[in-house]
Design brief:
This protein is an alpha/beta fold and 179 residues long. It is built from 6 helices and 5 strands, in the order βαβααβαβαβα. It has a single domain, classed as Flavodoxin domain (Rossmann fold, 3-Layer(aba) Sandwich), CATH 3.40.50. The model has no long low-confidence stretch (mean pLDDT 98). Strands 2-1-3-4-5 form a 5-stranded parallel β-sheet, with helices on both faces. The chain is globular. The protein starts with a strand and ends with a helix. The protein binds flavin mononucleotide (FMN). The site of flavin mononucleotide has 19 residues, from helix 1.
């Protein structure tokens, strides 16, 4: 069954390592016959959630910006993929801001059932992404019908493009191909 996959990439850098994972995931998913849309937050105007809770009645944010448009894309996707650099052992602020802006989804009839997380960091080791994964898990747990199905982490990459040739790209491709 063809699924519609929305990938939200949150690194501000050109040649981003986490975005390379996102592209590999997208290629795997496309090769498997799914439709894929990628949104790069760096090119968007996204204001902070105001915490007004109007969205819980309106099922839409009162702010009219790119965050509102992306939230509606999240609403209609079957699969959500979040890609982030590890910043201070957590997800990027850019991604956290977008996840908060996803608050209208909380009471809505959202479609997504599967969520994936892709991340990259300078340090190696499975402990490096654990708080970031836990942050994503916390967000997903607020959506009863969805589960965090998988994550790929690539450590030891500091500069843009460092990820080239790393086997984690293949892992991300395979994950996308098996959605
Ligand atoms: C503000 C900031 C915080 C960072 N914090 C960490 C960290 O806690 N642990 C780590 O291993 N790398 C850290 N890094 C390095 C990035 O995770 C690394 O450069 C990664 O490749 C960035 O991914 P990107 O290319 O997708 O932007 C940090 C970088 C920045 C700019």
């Amino acid at each position: 069954m063809e699924k519609h996959i929305l990938i939200i990439s949150s690194s501000p850098r050109k040649g981003s390592n986490s975005e390379a994972l996102a592209i590999a995931f997208a290629n795997g998913a496309k090769d498997a016959g799914h439709s894929v849309e990628m949104v790069t937050l760096a090119r968007q105007q996204i204001n902070y959630c105001r915490g007004c809770f109007a969205c819980q009645k309106l099922l839409r944010c009162v702010l009219r910006d790119d965050g509102d448009i992306i939230e509606q894309k999240m609403h209609h996707a079957d699969v959500l993929v979040f890609a982030s650099p590890i910043y201070y052992y957590n997800i990027s602020g850019q991604l956290k801001t977008m996840l908060d802006r996803g608050n209208p989804l909380f009471c809505a009839d959202y479609k997504f059932r599967e969520v994936y997380f892709l991340s990259a960091a300078a340090e190696e080791g499975e402990d490096v992404p654990k708080r970031a994964i836990s942050s994503i898990q916390g967000w997903v747990e607020c959506f009863d019908k969805a589960t965090l199905k998988g994550s790929v982490f690539c450590g030891g990459v500091t500069n843009p493009g460092d990820i080239e040739g790393r086997q984690e790209l293949k892992q991300a491709y395979e994950m996308g191909a098996n959605v």
